Every structure is written in structure tokens, then in C-alpha cells.
Amino acid sequence: MLQLIFYVFATILVASGAMVISARNPVHSVLFLILAFFNAAGLFLLAGAEFLAMILVIVYVGAVAVLFLFVVMMLDIDFTKMREGLQKYAPFGAAVGCILFAELVMAGLHWMFSPVMPLPITGGLGQMGGPVTNTGALGTLIYTHYLLLFQLCGLVLLVAMIGAITLTLRDRPTGRRQIISLQHERKRADTLEMMDLPLGQGTDANGGFLRPHDSYYVTAVPGSYGVPEAVEEEHEELVVREGEER
Amino acid sequence: MNWMLALPELVLAVSGLVVLSGGVLTKKGHAFLPTAALTIAAFVATIFLVGLSPDGVGYHGLFQVDAFARFIKVLALIGAIVAVALSVGHRDEGHELPFEMPVLVLFSTLGAMVMASSASLMTLFVGLELSSLSIYVLCAIERDRPQAAESGLKYFILGSLASGLLLYGISLVYGFAGTLSYAPIAAEINSVGALPLGLVIGVVFMLVGLAFKLSAVPFHMWTPDVYQGAPTPVTAYMAGAPKFAAFALILRVMSGPFGAMSPRWQILVEVIAAMSMLFGSFAAIPQHNIKRLMAYSSIGHMGYAMMGLAAASPAGTTGTLVYLSTYLVMNAGTFGVIEAMRRRGQEVDEISDLAGLGRTNPGMALILAICMFSMVGVPPLAGFFGKFMVFAAAWQAGLYPLIFLGAVSAVVGAYYYLRVVKVAWFDAPAAPFDRPAASVSFVSIAMGLATVLFLLGLGPISDAARAAAMALVG
């Protein structure tokens, strides 16, 4: 039974891996990549490495693959152009692949643990008693033995976040940012007009059509960041101006 | 678990989070001054806590506090205070720096402190990354200037490469010793007869990675561009705290876990030191930009400081620590003057812009002259004592070729330092500079005075350095 499950996961993994590089539509490629990740996670589960399986799904599917999707869908990449050299480079690529595969086989055949290698640190695990799961063991180590480093790594991530925000968030004078509280206060009646139209007639014939009463700008301030003090005045001014226009 | 051991770091980290939250909540455009002031206050408080922190090893052998760690931490914190104080007056086309700047300096200094206290290769790496990552961002923080972006990107790419090399070295050492803590590694090295090649390669890779952070030749290529492109307060910071921390790592790692194999790495350190001194002095001669000049000067100074390491003796370590202290004061004084080089709100950084400073602003020119003479190593000033102590240690260790090369490069270095003084005092005056911000004047005057009066503090500082060196040897 276990073997059957293994082969199911493995077959789908290899097949979706092949689809990643052969699918014409790049979005399909990314979706197949996600499928491949899920199947690899299944294989990890079978091997008893439940932590790796979870990390694979959370990190690769949750973050990396979604990022790929963004890149593929948002950026203007000409994929036909990227594929142009495929025929020319195929033999070379296949040769590299064969060499890598042969090396893997050779390494796998002679794989063994060195007899003199000392055991890794298992501090704190001794007291737990009973069988310990991977996740439990890692958690015990990280939150006791390596607590200081764990917190410091958190600071490293915080610095990365500060850096990303400082270097990329720009105050654009032409941009507009929604004022959440005002947007929440709006009711459907403020923005939309529902009309019952007789069959066969358009809204034109009934004096107007379905659309917001006032503009989206009522609930937005200029600039990328809302400046709290300026918001209220700005809002009133906008309302007045739009009223005049009407 | 002894939490008190890392109390200064914990307090600094929490202050950083508080200052950051405060900065985010303050109205945009008014946040810089309060954040900078709070950051300096946090640094000052941390200096006191560092002075009070007890000796010991804690956190399961990951973290240690001794006289050496305290010495380096105080140096790094003073360097950070100077950098933040300089940044208060900084304007780029009328804009002040974003309020994240002091916060990032704070986190970078925290990384430097962790590096100084590392008792395990993993602590070393995490501290180094915290420190470096903040500096990558700091370099590019004036992101609208192409030079700043270039500076940040260059440092980021090359710094990541160096981190990779360091990590590879660490993994080889781990493969040999099966542990990352310093004491067991030292025990393991002492217990084997012949050193395996993998370990030696690992140590060399670690040395390369750390030499990059120190900008020692031949891993110095990033320094001039990064120094020139980064905002002046950031450059002042980079020339201080991170270098001290990297030196702390080299000293700690090389004399701690790898102390038993010192004959193997000594020749390497000698070569790096000699090349840094020579390159630092000769390559600085054609420079006309004062920030680039200071970059080459820093390369040279790192060479002199490494001379103490090459001696591989407590006297050498003491010399290096005193050298770093003198470098801190004279370097900070010089950057105070550079920060004050502004005309009509625009930053100018050519050496020729200093022409006739002796007539337009004699006080500033005097401080510049003091710092430059100190960098040359003229006797009553700070720089002399550092140079004297490392040369003496190298003499005791019998490194005569290194002393000869050091003397040659000191003479060559005198030429380009004194050229700056000549331009400032004897050339026809250029247009006067703007009136510098109070904090900038304060930093340059304080550091100029410290350079002149270093003799008064020499006794306590060299005592502290000696205690630190002894703590390192154990």
C-alpha cells in the first residue's frame, strides 16, 4: 500500500515536473510547479519528514510559487522569444542532464554515513522521553537551545522588512489612497442607484444609468500615505467641490 | 539561563523596536530628530549596561561576555553615536534622511555587539548578517541619487558573496569538528596531530570572508565606490562600528578556536596586512575626492591594525585594540569635517573644495589638520600611540619585513594626508562653506579634542585593552 502511494506521488511529481518546462502557457507552468511541490511534500510525508513537508508547502507553494505567478502575470515577458533557442540548446541541455543524473546515481550507490562522524547536538531532547517527532525536536531545540539566535534571526527579518519599505515605498503626489473609515461608512444607497427597467429598454430611456452617485475620490486622499490631519479637511473640500460640479 | 548576560543587547533591541514604532507613528517629515535623539539615548544607556555586564558564557554556549567583548562593544557604540549625531544635520537637496536611518544604525550596532560576544560560529554569522544587512540598506537610503543606489547594490552583491564564502568556511570547520562552539573546536584541534586539509581550507575561507568585511586587500574593491556613494554619516558609521566588530571576530576566532594553528594562518594575515598598508597608501595618492581618499585611508589603517593580529601575541592584540580606539576618534573627527563641507545646501566632496579653509573657517581647518596629522602618526596625537603599539608588538614577534613595509607605507601615506592639510591651509581660498549644524560641529570638535588629548586617556585605554587581550587568550 505504502509503495503504491509512493509511486502515485512520484509519478505525478515527475509528470508535473515535465509539464513545467513543456507547457506553452507560462501560467500553466507555474500551476504545474505548485502541483509538483505538493507531490514532493507528499513524498516527504511518506518518508516521515513531516516538518519538511509542511515547510515545502508553506514556503514554496505559499510564497515562492505565488511570487512566480505575480511575475508571470504582471511583467511583460515575451515567452515565445525566450523559447526560441530551445531546439538549438536541447542536445546540450540533455547532455548536462544526463551527466547530473549519472553523478546522482553514482553518489547514491556509495552513500553511507561516516563511522567517525560525531552525533549532532541533541540538547534538551533527552528529557522529553518517548518518541519525538521532527517538528517537536526542532521546536525544542529552537525555542530552548537556540532561543537567542532565533530572536536575532527575527531581527534580521525585521531589518529586511524595514529596508524593503524604506527603499521602495514612495510618496507619489499623483497616487490616491483610500481612507478606510470613510469607505466603510458608505452605504450602497450612497453609491449605487438601482432601477427596475422594463424589458427591452435601456437606462438611457429612463433618465440615466446605473452608476455611482459620487466619485471614488470622495474616500481617497492624494499621495501614497494618508496624512491623518489633512484627511478631514481634504475630504470636506473634495465633497464641496464635487457638489459644485454637480 | 542567565538572561543578564545579554542585557545590553536585549535593552538595545527593545529600544530599537520602540524607536521604530515611535517613528512610524510620528507625523511624516517630523520623525527624524526625535528618532535620532532617542537612538543616541539608547546607545548611551547601552554603554552603561555594557560596563556593568558580568563575565560569563551563556545561552547554551552561544554567547559570551568578557573584557574583550566589552571593549569592542563600547568602541562600536561610540562609533554609532557619532554617526547618528552627524546624520542630524544631514540634508540631501533640502530633505533630511528618512527616520529609518537611526533605527537601522541601531540594529546594525546590535549585530556588531552580538559579533563581539559570539561564542559560536552560528552567533558570529547571525550577528554579521544583522549588521551587514542594515548597512546595505543604509548605503542606498538616499535612493534617488544614482551613486547611492550603486553603492548599496555593489555592497549588497559583494557582501553576500563574502557571507557565502564565510559560511562555506564555517561549514568545512563544522564538518571537521562536529560542533560550532569555539571551545570544543579548540579542544578538537588540540587533540589531533596533523591538521586535515579541509579544516585549513575552511579557516582560509573564513579569513577571506572576514577580510572582506574589513576591506583588507585583496578584498577591498568595493570600498571606494561604496564610501563615496553612501551618505556621509553612513560612511562615517561604516568606517567605525562594523570594522571594529569584524576585527573582534577575527581576533576572537583566530586566537580562540584556531589559536593552536596560528603558524598556519599567520603568514596569510601578514600578507594581507602588508598588502593593505601598501595599497592603502599608494592608491590614495591620485584621489581627488575626499570620501574616496578616506576609503583608501581606511584600507591602509586596517592593514596596520592587522599587524597586531599577525604578531599573534597578547601584546599584538592590545596594540590592535588601541589602534582601533585611535582610529575611531580621528576618523570620526575627519568625517565631522567632511559632513560640514556644504555650499548653499549642496554637499561637496572634492579635496579642492577645501582650498583656503584655514582662512574661511580656521576652526574646521584646525580639526582637519589635527586628524590628518594624527592619521600620519605624528607623536603627541592619537594616531601615534596606536601605530607605536602595533609596531612594537610586531618587533617583539620578529616580523621585520612587515615593519619595514609598514614604515614605507606610513611615509607614503604622510604625503597624501599632508596634501589635504596643504590644500586647506596654503591654497587660495574657495567660496566658504555653509554654517554646519550644531551636532556636526560638536562631533568634530569633540573628536578633534579627543585626538589631541588622547595621551591623557592612554593609560586607562591601554589597561582596558590589555585586560581585553588577556581575556581573549584566556
Automatic annotation (TrEMBL), chain A:
- Give the membrane topology, semicolon-separated if more than one: Multi-pass membrane protein
Cell wall biogenesis/degradation in keyword set: no
Question: What does the similarity note say?
Answer: Belongs to the complex I subunit 6 family.
What stretches pass through the bilayer?
Answer: 6-23, 30-49, 55-77, 89-113, 146-169
Q: Which UniProt keywords apply?
A: Cell membrane, Membrane, NAD, Oxidoreductase, Quinone, Transmembrane, Transmembrane helix
Function text: NDH-1 shuttles electrons from NADH, via FMN and iron-sulfur (Fe-S) centers, to quinones in the respiratory chain. Couples the redox reaction to proton translocation (for every two electrons transferred, four hydrogen ions are translocated across the cytoplasmic membrane), and thus conserves the redox energy in a proton gradient.
Record-linked Gene3D superfamilies: NADH-ubiquinone/plastoquinone oxidoreductase chain 6, subunit NuoJ
This protein's name: NADH-quinone oxidoreductase subunit J
Query: From what superkingdom does this record's organism come?
Result: Bacteria
- What top-tier enzyme class does this entry carry? translocase
**Catalytic activity, reaction form:** a quinone + NADH + 5 H(+)(in) = a quinol + NAD(+) + 4 H(+)(out)
Q: Pfam families in the record, alphabetically?
A: Oxidored_q3 (PF00499)
Query: Does the record bear NAD in its keywords?
Result: yes
Alphabetical list of PANTHER family matching this protein? NADH-UBIQUINONE OXIDOREDUCTASE CHAIN 6 (PTHR33269:SF17)
What are its E.C. numbers? 7.1.1.-
Write out the annotated subcellular location: Cell membrane
**One annotated Gene Ontology cellular component of this protein:** plasma membrane
Q: GO molecular-function annotation terms?
A: NADH dehydrogenase (ubiquinone) activity; oxidoreductase activity; quinone binding
From TrEMBL, chain B:
Give the UniProt entry's GO cellular component terms: endomembrane system; plasma membrane
Report the EC number(s), separated by commas if there are several: 7.1.1.-
- List GO BP terms, alphabetically: ATP synthesis coupled electron transport
Residue ranges annotated for the NADH:quinone oxidoreductase/Mrp antiporter transmembrane domain, each copy included? 118-412
Q: What is the protein's membrane topology class? A: Multi-pass membrane protein
Q: What top-tier enzyme class does this entry carry?
A: translocase
Extract the InterPro entries matched here: NADH-Q_OxRdtase_suN/2 (IPR010096), ND/Mrp_TM (IPR001750)
Residues in a coiled coil are: none
Function statement? NDH-1 shuttles electrons from NADH, via FMN and iron-sulfur (Fe-S) centers, to quinones in the respiratory chain. The immediate electron acceptor for the enzyme in this species is believed to be ubiquinone. Couples the redox reaction to proton translocation (for every two electrons transferred, four hydrogen ions are translocated across the cytoplasmic membrane), and thus conserves the redox energy in a proton gradient.
What PANTHER family does the database record attribute to this sequence? Answer: NADH DEHYDROGENASE (PTHR22773)
The record ties this protein, via HAMAP family, to: NDH1_NuoN_1
Identify the NCBIfam families for this entry.
Answer: NDH_I_N, PRK05777.1-3
Subunit details: NDH-1 is composed of 14 different subunits. Subunits NuoA, H, J, K, L, M, N constitute the membrane sector of the complex.
Protein name (database record): NADH-quinone oxidoreductase subunit N
Provide the taxonomic classification. Answer: Bacteria, Pseudomonadati, Pseudomonadota, Alphaproteobacteria, Acetobacterales
